[in-house]
């Protein structure tokens, strides 16, 4: 039997493989967004018994309203969610999972590591790193690291944009679900968009979703949209771009607020869970996204997108942005100037012109973003690649 059918098949009658995933929230939604998507995929597609340790339940609840803030242990969508309160927690051998994943080099509790070392059959221990298009990750992907104190080995595992990395997170039915949703939305006269308050006129306009960090030049872009030669409807989740939206509305933005100035209609919509956020990305003509989770989902949405990258000291994030644009520019040249201005890599003297040029180039985008999606699919789904690697390690 293959590794897949022997321990990861849903038909496997043995006790399910256990996986512990540890997540410390740094970027409010990117970290937990990735870990939650992976947890759901591990459970639904591979019948893995997943336990997700997360230190920030409030951020988690924004993405998954079912999460309770006052429970240390709860089951949500077949995933056991544990509130990771501190590093002093103690563990017994029975607490240790078969696969242990720490997200983005977070330090898992010392006693968990010490208890792992006492087991005859050591768990597979992985450090899931952040997504980057930088070429150096191909040399670090899957590298082992021996623990300095215990007989344990941790392996670095990188998502990425080539077949020398783990690829991108992509559920097995994602593209099928996207096509079905778009067909149904059109046939039923856009119930999702109407549920967000859009009128028939707004639905026909160019629709933009806006998700960014607070320092994004939103006010400049709002003014450019107001001056646009064609109607623009901008949909902003509650809590995003508060300063710019307060200036635009003249009041603190709240869900349901809408205002039209010249060509722009701006609407404040609820902060959506992951499934409905995918729906929003699929239906908008341009998506402004941030961090890592929404960045990946925008690529699977097959729509033009502008990435607001998580800021790092000494502008290290500019290098990550440049690496992605260098790789992606051959597919979609329209994004480069806009992305550089949006991330303050270069000064934009004329946002009206920048948006106008972006809109004109966007007419060529549909075939290009589909080409990019197909190219990324050739690298395989991240979780499938990860479990294939775990299988290799188990055979050693």
Structure characterization notes:
- With 396 residues, the protein is of the alpha/beta class.
- It is 41% helix and 17% strand.
- It contains 17 helices and 14 strands.
- The protein has an eight-stranded mixed beta sheet, covered by helices on one side.
Notable features of this structure?
Rossmann fold, 396 residues, alpha/beta, 14 strands, single chain
Main-sheet strand order equals 3-4-2-1-5-6-8-7
Question: Compute the gyration radius: what is it?
Answer: 22 Å
Largest sheet, strands/sense/barrel: 8 strands, mixed
Strand content bin? 15-25%
Report the CATH superfamily of the largest domain.
Glycogen Phosphorylase B
Average pLDDT for all residues: 92
Dominant shape: globular
Number of strands: 14
Poorly predicted parts:
1-13
Counted up, domains total 2
Oligomer: single chain
CATH architecture of the largest domain: 3-Layer(aba) Sandwich
What's the total helix number?
17
User: Would you state the CATH class of the largest domain?
Assistant: Alpha Beta
Content-based structural category: alpha/beta
Helix content: 40-55%
CATH fold node name of the largest domain: Rossmann fold
Summarize the structure.
The chain is an alpha/beta fold. It is built from 17 helices and 14 strands.
Topology:
Blueprint: H1 3-8, E1 18-23, H2 30-46, E2 49-54, H3 57-63, E3 73-76, E4 79-83, E5 99-103, H4 110-118, E6 124-128, H5 137-140, E7 144-146, E8 153-157, H6 174-187, H7 191-195, H8 200-204, E9 206-210, H9 218-226, E10 232-237, H10 242-249, E11 258-261, E12 264-269, H11 274-283, E13 286-290, H12 293-300, E14 305-308, H13 316-328, H14 335-342, H15 351-361, H16 365-377, H17 382-395
Parallel strand pairs: 1-2, 1-5, 2-4, 5-6, 6-8, 9-10, 9-13, 10-12, 13-14
Antiparallel strand pairs: 3-4, 7-8, 11-12
Helix pairs in contact: 9-15
